[in-house]
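Narrative of accomplishments. A recurring question from our advisory board has been how the design workflow behaves on a single, concrete structure rather than in aggregate. To address it, we present the structure tokens for one chain from the evaluation set, followed by the sequence designed for it. No filtering or post-editing was applied between the two.
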């Protein structure tokens, strides 16, 4: 499965939902919120407790996809 296909299973964009900002599919929770929480030092569990409509599997899949995408573009050491 391609990264874009995986992304489409996790992320949804709709101009009628938060002005088209990417959200976790099936929710109104912006994807950016997960990264903001982690950047601020919060754990994944803390994020999930604040946004119970996001499933753990969705959040982990998004983080895995981000890691895979960044690793694929990283220059060899």
């Amino acid at each position: 499965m391609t990264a874009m296909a995986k992304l489409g299973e996790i992320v949804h964009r709709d101009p009628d939902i938060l002005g088209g900002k990417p959200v976790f599919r099936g929710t109104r929770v912006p994807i950016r919120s997960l990264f903001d929480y982690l950047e601020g030092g919060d754990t994944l569990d803390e994020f999930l407790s604040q946004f119970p409509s996001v499933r753990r599997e969705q959040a982990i899949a998004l983080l895995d996809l981000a890691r895979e995408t960044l690793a694929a573009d990283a220059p060899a050491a």
